[in-house]
Every structure is written in structure tokens, then in C-alpha cells.
Amino acid sequence: MTSPLTTRWATEADLGALQNIMALAIEQLQRGFLDPAQIAASRAVMGLDTQLVRDGTYLMVEDDGLPVGCGGWSWRATLYGGDHSAALRNAAQLDPACDPARIRAMYTHPDHARRGIGRLVLDTCEAAARDAGFGAVELMATMSGLPLYRACGYLEVEPHLDMVDGVGVPLVRMAKRLTR
């Protein structure tokens, strides 16, 4: 029998564990969706955005105290990207009356994939965004994340190709209305 998953909002003390989960997920969970050059290039646009941790909107998922997943939501305009992808960042505050909140940086440790961690993160973040007054959310999906987001009611808005040193990293902008 497995222990129940727990969630809590991440703190700066969690940054190392978060970076570890992200590195493993990027390297291992994208296999079969991206070729090795695309996986390597994706590191330039994926990763930790510490602003989410500072804002108190980044979730840590634990299994018996062991970090196994993470993801967040944001009331800022940045749709995706980590601290190292400055060109993608926009700290402007979104207006819940007319803007969708952002679902950001979802990662699962490869040893814990397909155990409901992604759904738990989405449910928790969607509820927090709804509680903050947002009526919709959007995200930028990786190819490995598409099946989960579709299963959770996200609709494809537009495909996107992020070019990194001549290598295209395919992504898809997705959105979902939040029900009250």
C-alpha cells in the first residue's frame, strides 16, 4: 500500500529538491515525445521560476516526506519559462476580471509518474486561482504534458515552436474555464 500524497506551498528551502525533480523530468519523461536534441534545447525554456516560490503559488507534492512532484499557478503575465529564460518573463499583474491565471512549471519525478501527481497539482492550483477570483487558466504544454491536460479539460489554443540554437521545441498553448 502506498502512502497518501501530501501538498504544501514550496519555500526557498525547497529550491534544490525542485531543481532535481525538474532536471530528471525534463531528461526522462520527454523521451518518446522529443528527440535528444529537442530535450537538450528544452532546458533553455523550461525550469524553475523562483518568482512563483516567492509569490507563495508554487506547490510541492510529497510522498511520505519525499518530494515527488511540483507545479504552480500565477497571477503574473509570464506564461512559461524559468529564471534563466529572461526573454519569456513578464512580472505584470494579471486582472482576474479579464485575464486567465497561469498554470506553471508542472513536473513529476520519473519514479512517481502516472500516480495522479499531475492531476493533484492541477486541481490544487485551479482551486487557488479560482479562490483568487480568476475564471479561467492557461498554460504552455510540453508534448509529454498534452495527454494529461487534455484529460483534465484543457483545450488547445495554438501550437508554438520555441527555437533554441536552431532546434525547435514544440509546445501548445492551452486554456480552461474554471467553474465556480
CATH topology: Aminopeptidase
Helical content (DSSP H or I, runs of 4+):
25-40%
CATH superfamily: Gcn5-related N-acetyltransferase (GNAT)
The number of domains: 1
The string of secondary-structure elements, in order, is EHHHEEEHEHEE
Distance N to C terminus: 34 Å
User: What coarse outline follows from CA principal-axis ratios?
Assistant: globular
CATH architecture: 3-Layer(aba) Sandwich
The Cα radius of gyration reads 15 Å
How confident is the prediction overall: mean pLDDT? 95
Helix and strand composition category: alpha+beta
Question: Within the largest sheet, what's the order of strands?
Answer: 1-2-3-4-5-7-6
Poorly predicted tracts of residues: none
Please count the beta strands (DSSP E, at least 2 residues each). Answer: 7
Description:
The chain is of the alpha+beta class and 180 residues long. Helix content is 27%, strand content 31%. It has helices spanning 15-29, 36-42, 50-55, 117-131, 146-151; strands at residues 5-9, 58-63, 66-74, 101-108, 136-142, 155-164, 167-177. It has a seven-stranded mixed β-sheet with strand order 1-2-3-4-5-7-6. A hairpin with a 2-residue loop joins strand 2 (58-63) and strand 3. The chain is globular. The mean pLDDT is 95.
